[in-house]
Specification:
By secondary structure, the chain is an alpha/beta fold. The protein has two domains: 8-179, 3-Layer(aba) Sandwich (Rossmann fold), CATH 3.40.50; 190-402, CoaB-like (Rossmann fold), CATH 3.40.50. It is 35% helix and 24% strand. The strands form five sheets. The chain has an eight-stranded mixed sheet, with helices on both faces. Strands 2-1-3-4-5 form a five-stranded parallel sheet, with helices on both faces. Helix 1 (19-31) packs parallel to helix 3 (50-57) and helix 11 packs across helix 15.
């Protein structure tokens, strides 16, 4: 299973002959669908030119901490927030020591301090340097802090020695990075997610819809698949590619979405209703195209099926998570919606504010359940989705314990 398409990987390259292998690693990451940004230390540039990584990644290479252009927009902070993973390959003994000490003496070490993304380190050095007690102490300290150490391998070294210290091969590092996105928090569970808008026909060419892009729902589907779930994605009309390993069902209307959900509900452990389902449908859809005239036009609207309310009223239903898009009084309206529709959880986001809600790549959520709540601060929707899946997993397990 390839979890890398669309993932944002910050590849750090430090000084060492193994830097040439990182060029192949960059190529493999891009081929796997990852978005790669390369950050080089001064030592790395002595072995491979930045132009090599730029050509392979398709993106500018970063290496200056005090770059006047980047600093104008706090470029290093933005890069730190951008990354889903930081992979340092090769990681020299010097860089491992500085990382252990929490130093911020260059761009790469600063990014490691400024980012909340998981860090993976692939050591590469002379076998004696690797076995040195100080290096081993540094590595042990990093592991205790949750930094993943990948390798090193054992074999012939560029200096002529033989032993531990070789950087893992690019294909092996690719696999380690790929598996780092699979948490198994929802391992083996069937999860259905609704996403996107619905369209309710006025005539043959016009319809009622909303501004939902489907990005949040698709991000949740990817995060749930990364967490080991068997994911069914029921989506309205959107222009988004289907994440790998996910069963996608395309619908157009609220009625079609509702019927699809209800038909497959018995097989689901969790239902996440992130779709922006239309609240009303024209009572009578005009045949053909309705011609424009100078007369006023009135269209009678009828409420659509409330999918989450229908599911909430069932005796034997899956763990149910709803969404609420609100402009004000978020907690009050969201909690009332959760209670009235008998949902286990609800995720509320404020629309109409910059960088949140519809048609953007970032979001923030306030999640509520019967006896708790959690705020997810503004971040890219992929990160928000992973955080949401973690919360859902935890509450699902607690719910199962209560019902055992």
């Amino acid at each position: 299973m390839n979890f890398l398409p669309g993932k944002r990987v910050l590849l750090g390259v430090t000084g060492g002959i193994a830097a040439y292998k990182s060029a192949e690693l960059t190529r493999l990451l891009v081929k796997a669908g990852a978005d790669v940004r390369v950050v080089m230390t001064d030592g790395a540039k002595a072995f491979v030119t930045p132009l090599t990584y730029q050509a392979l990644s398709g993106n500018p290479v970063h290496h200056e901490l005090l770059d006047e252009t980047a600093e104008a927009g706090m470029g290093h902070i933005e890069l730190a927030k951008w990354a889903d993973r930081i992979l340092i390959a090769p990681a020299s003994a010097n860089f491992i020591a500085r990382l252990r000490q929490g130093m911020a003496s260059d761009l790469l070490s600063t990014l490691c301090l400024a980012s909340s993304a998981p860090i993976l380190v692939a050591p590469a050095m002379n076998q004696q340097m690797w076995s040195n007690a100080q290096t081993q102490e540094n590595v042990a300290s990093l592991e205790q802090r949750g930094i993943h150490i990948l390798g090193p391998d054992i074999g012939d070294q560029a200096c002529g020695d033989f032993g531990a210290g070789r950087m893992l091969e690019p294909a092996d590092l690719l696999q380690h990075l790929n598996l780092s996105f699979s948490s198994q928090l929802l391992g083996g569970l069937n999860v259905m997610i609704t996403a996107g808008p619905t369209r309710e026909a006025i005539d043959a060419v016009r319809f009622i819809s909303n501004r939902s892009s489907g990005k949040m729902g698709f991000a949740i589907a990817s995060a749930a698949r990364e967490a080991g779930a068997n994911v069914t994605l029921v989506t309205g009309p959107v222009s988004l590619q289907t994440p790998e390993g996910i069963t996608r069902i395309n619908v157009e209307t609220a009625e079609q979405m509702g019927q699809c959900v209800l038909d497959q509900l018995a097989d689901q452990h969790i239902l996440i209703g992130s779709a922006a389902v239309a609240d009303y449908v024209p009572s009578n859809s005009f045949q053909g195209k309705l011609k424009k005239s100078s007369q006023q036009l009135s269209i009678e609207l009828t409420p659509t099926l409330d999918i989450m309310r229908e599911v909430g009223g069932m005796t034997d239903r899956p763990f149910t998570v709803g969404f609420a898009a609100e402009t004000d009084n978020i907690k009050t309206y969201a909690q009332e919606k959760r209670r009235s529709k008998n949902m286990d959880m609800i995720a509320a986001n404020q629309v109409g504010v910059p960088e949140s809600g519809f048609e953007v790549d970032t979001n923030s959520l306030d999640i509520y359940w019967a006896n708790g709540e959690q705020h997810l601060a503004l971040a890219h929707k992929t990160k928000i989705a992973r955080q949401l899946v973690e919360v859902i997993s935890r509450q699902y397990r607690e719910n199962q314990g209560d019902n055992a």
